[in-house]
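Example 9 (inverse folding). The structure is encoded as follows.
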């Protein structure tokens, strides 16, 4: 690989990781099964939750759960790409890539393009299944554009966070450090019932959780009832900005180690 510019490096990294994803069942199956399990288990098993007093989400419980699973798939599409970064360091490929790339920021951009592709594929499959299961979308095309833009930003922040860890530790043993924060943020949000129906410390945690804003805004887009849109996008953009700095620091750490 010759020393290329930013976009040539990004395209090469994105193609390699996307190709590896779609040709490796060990990567593609977990990416699908994890969000699919949550959707089918809870959209089906808890479908009567929308009949309890105080559940005021008009689009129905299937759509309510889909809003969470969409955010979850976007998040883990980014986190799992961080695993790929760590795997590339363990194999020695990333060190060769650092030597070959003229614009090393293109490496991170390439991993993000791969993460976006992975998330888009997973979301497309889940959306198809959800549609068969009775997904109701009351929002218009502008609302849907807002929904998927928000998911794109979440995907970028998750990928940058995972990449920053992977480039600092450069081992697959970094996996729990990538996953646990994502799990905690996702599941300390109003996942299965609206925020107003949460109680105790769970509601307190959800009130400080930035994912709560994005989850409620996403569900608002699906229901055609815009909710907390500006705060949600503000938080998402802030997370992307912070994780860009985090990933850049990881890249510098990897450069020093190489």
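The amino acid assigned to each position is listed next.
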């Amino acid at each position: 690989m010759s020393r290329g510019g930013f976009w040539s490096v990004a395209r090469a990294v994105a193609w390699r990781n996307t190709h590896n994803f779609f040709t490796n069942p060990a990567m593609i199956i977990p990416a699908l099964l994890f969000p699919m399990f949550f959707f089918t288990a809870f959209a089906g098993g808890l479908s009567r939750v929308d009949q309890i007093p105080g559940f005021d989400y008009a689009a129905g419980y299937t759509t309510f759960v889909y809003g969470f699973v969409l955010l979850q798939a976007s998040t883990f599409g980014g986190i799992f790409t961080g695993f790929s970064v760590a795997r590339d360091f363990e194999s020695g490929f990333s060190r060769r890539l650092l030597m070959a790339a003229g614009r090393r920021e293109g490496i991170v951009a390439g991993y993000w393009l791969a993460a976006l592709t992975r998330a888009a594929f997973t979301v497309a499959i889940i959306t198809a299944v959800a549609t068969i299961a009775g997904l109701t979308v009351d929002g218009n095309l502008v609302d849907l554009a807002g929904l998927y833009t928000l998911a794109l930003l979440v995907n970028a922040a998750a990928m940058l966070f995972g990449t920053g860890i992977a480039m600092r530790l450069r081992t697959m043993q970094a996996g729990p450090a990538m996953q646990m924060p994502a799990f905690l943020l996702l599941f300390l949000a109003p996942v299965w019932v609206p925020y107003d129906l949460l109680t105790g410390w769970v509601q307190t945690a959800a009130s400080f959780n930035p994912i709560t804003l994005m989850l409620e805004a996403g569900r608002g887009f699906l229901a055609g009832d815009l909710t907390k849109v500006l705060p949600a996008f503000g938080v998402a953009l802030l997370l992307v900005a912070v994780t860009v700095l985090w990933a850049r620091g990881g890249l510098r750490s990897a450069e020093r180690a190489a």
